[in-house]
Amino acid sequence: MKKLQLASFAIVSLSLAGCAGSGSSSSSGGGVHTSKIGLWTTTSTTAGSGTYTQIDRLARPAINEVFATVANNRHEVNDEDSPPNDVNQLKNDIDGFLISPANRSPAIRTVIESVLVPDMMMADVSQSGSAAYLGVETGGATGSKFGGRGLTDDVIKTSLGIIFGNTIPALGLAPDDNNEIPTLTDDHVGPDGKHFLSTIPYLGNPR
Fold first, then answer.
1. Long-range contacts of 167-170, Cβ-Cβ distance < 8 Å, separation of 24 or more
2. If you average pLDDT over every residue of the chain, what do you get?
3. 77 lies in which domain range?
4. Is 86 helix (H, G, I), strand (E, B) or coil?
5. Which of 12, 38, 97, 170 has a beta carbon 3.0–4.6 Å from 67's, enabling a disulfide?
6. Number of structural domains found in the chain
7. Which of 77, 72, 71 is nearest to 57 (CA)?
8. Three-state SS for 40?
9. Does residue 160 lie in a domain region?
10. Distance of CA 78 to CAs 57, 71, 127, Å?
């Protein structure tokens, strides 16, 4: 039996998109600095050769799992890809799903794709306050402008509201297409069953 080794790497990437007005400045060497960062993780395996091969990637929860089909190995393609190439791969999966079965308008599709591509967990380290899922992308509409993800953030419900609900029109980001599917906007699973701690590792034993 071959020994399987797993390695997870947290990769931090500077997000330069939309940094105008966010306190960006040029360094003496001509580089651009921004307080906004994008984070994602990868899992790689090696069979002892010393060369790691990426087999999984995750940033925002359930993006690849929801939008990419199992057909044509779309899950695998995105798992082995990286955020800079999402515009060529993951974006097509998102657009296809939003056309059918979600049946969203071109305007709503454009907004959703601009938020989710590339797939990185965004945070603005210049902002104070608690973490809030999609806080950077929505200008603080989800709770704070810091972004990231709070332990009690119901990210699945938020995502379902964006895909099947009226979240985008309610934020004034696109006209309502009246194609909401209310029965699909909530998974009815909240954070109540989880046990959180006030210190590291923050996640307590299951109750």
1. 168/108, 168/111, 168/112, 169/108
2. 84
3. 60-193
4. coil
5. 97
6. 1
7. 77
8. strand
9. yes
10. 8, 13, 31
